[in-house]
Amino acid sequence: MSNVFSFTGTVGRDAEVRYLPSGQAVLNVTVANNIGFGDKQQTLWIRCAVWGKRAEGQLQNYLKKGQQVFVSGELSQSEYRAQDGTTKTTLELNANILDLVGKRNESNQPTYESAPGKPSAQKAPSHDNFDAPYDDDIPF
């Protein structure tokens, strides 16, 4: 690999798997990467591709809009002419590593309920008795 570009970002839309006429699978996902800060902050949109067996696996099911990811691979830049006649530039990454980091950024996350008979939240300790929430059997 002649260059390596690694970054963390947020998936912009759900990943898609396609198959080339040769039968090889390719998973495509677009990832947003924020650079700079304050009023100088910009968002780079990077099209990432994962090839072969990894593209055929279950990764597509986890690469949903809002998911944070770490991506590393070979970066390339290409130009195309938009419908309005202007020349646009796109960044493309042939990903060797694509890992999930952090939680999805959506309100419809699955919630995990406590076991039956167990309280779902601990009661706040009383100011009258500071030892109430602590158990003497703690080994440290």
Secondary-structure topology with pairs:
Blueprint: E1 5-11, E2 16-19, E3 25-35, E4 42-51, H1 53-56, H2 59-62, E5 68-81, E6 87-100
Parallel strand pairs: 4-6
Antiparallel strand pairs: 1-3, 1-5, 2-3, 3-4, 5-6
Describe it for me?
This protein has 140 residues and is mostly beta strands. It has two helices and six strands; from the N terminus they run E-E-E-E-H-H-E-E. It has helices at 53-56, 59-62, and strands at residues 5-11, 16-19, 25-35, 42-51, 68-81, 87-100. A five-stranded mixed β-barrel has the order 1-3-4-6-5. The longest helix is centred in the middle third of the chain and has 4 residues, at 53-56.
Can you tag this structure with a few keywords?
single chain; 140 residues; mainly beta; OB fold (Dihydrolipoamide Acetyltransferase, E2P); five-stranded mixed barrel; 2 helices
Strand order of the largest sheet: 1-3-4-6-5
Distance between the termini: 50 Å
| SSE succession | EEEEHHEE
Supply the CATH architecture of the domain at 5-100: Beta Barrel
CATH fold-level label of the domain at 5-100: OB fold (Dihydrolipoamide Acetyltransferase, E2P)
Query: What's the name of the CATH homologous superfamily of the domain at 5-100?
Result: Nucleic acid-binding proteins
The fraction of residues assigned to DSSP E strands is 35-45%
Given as residue ranges, the uncertain stretches (5+ residues, pLDDT < 50) are: 107-135
The CATH C-level name of the domain at 5-100 is Mainly Beta
Class by alpha and beta content: mainly beta
- What is the average of the pLDDT values? 79
